Amino acid sequence: MLWKAILKSTCKSIGERQSIGSHDSFSFYIDEASPVGPEQPETVQNFVSVFGTVAKKLMRKWLATQTMNFTSQLGAGIRYFDLRISTKPRDPDNELYFAHGLFSAKVKEGLEEINAFLSEHPKEVVFLDFNHFYGMQKCHHEKLVQMLKDTYGNKMCPAIFAHEVSLQYLWEKEHQVLVFYHSPVAVEVAFLWPGQMMPAPWANTTDTEKLIQFLQASITERRKKGSFFISQVVLTPKASTVVKGVASGLRETITERALPAMMEWVRTQKAGESGVNIITADFVELGDFISTVIKLNYSLDEGEDDTT
């Protein structure tokens, strides 16, 4: 009965289903030899200028929020990718890079890695959310748009109403990629979904209890139609947190300690248009995060089967 329900639910909007995402998806690789990103405050720039490589090694412990590369994340079940793009100061090749404090891999390499997986798995669908841009001019956006065209071509689904997008629709059209673009550029390109259609409220707290309260309040206020929705099960360190755990890093100091409480919240959620849609986390391989989120879809399908 469960398999029958899953097949039948391919006609439901993917905005009603539950997907798994990674926060700062590209940060499994942080280039310690790179300059500091242009978005970093002057205090960080000065810190690195004084302490050099030592400072960057310490920064990496707090900037890396994932350990698995794109291929491994896809294989584990991740389908939403949080992508932040930057130019690099004095880069002679004028490349685009993923960036989070320090620079990561070239964007082109990451997009091609994801595309290789999609080509091998023609019924899989991913969300690419380009939500931060640093040091980018119009020419850089044009370069990125062309890069997306060259890499994914007709795999990209043109922007339509979110409630119209079902797995069945995507399979029939042979679309596998939804690109969300948090820039006015999105209105000029048919295959770019406006950023406001992928809201991602941010709790910005180190307190697990406050995070859970924020997540629950956000779910309650979620618009029932018209957009996708991200629940960021993520704690954000303050400067004092980093100082106290400077040698340990984000994973040991915050994420692992808070994991039991955060997972308890995830287990209590329901998929559906008034529930969770996309849940993102740091270090997605920890605990049973991925399997727990996947199970939320099973309960949605079972409920649908019970009512038919």
UniProtKB/TrEMBL annotation:
It comes from the Eukaryota. CDD domains: PI-PLCXD1c (cd08616). The keyword Hydrolase applies. GO terms for cellular component: synapse. GO terms for biological process: lipid catabolic process; signal transduction. GO terms for molecular function: phosphoric diester hydrolase activity. It holds the Pfam family PI-PLC-X. Residues 21-182 form the Phosphatidylinositol-specific phospholipase C X domain. Keywords: Hydrolase, Lipid degradation, Lipid metabolism, Transducer. SMART domains: PLCXc. The keyword Flavoprotein does not apply. Coiled coil: none annotated. This is Phosphatidylinositol specific phospholipase C X domain containing 3. It comes from Serinus canaria.
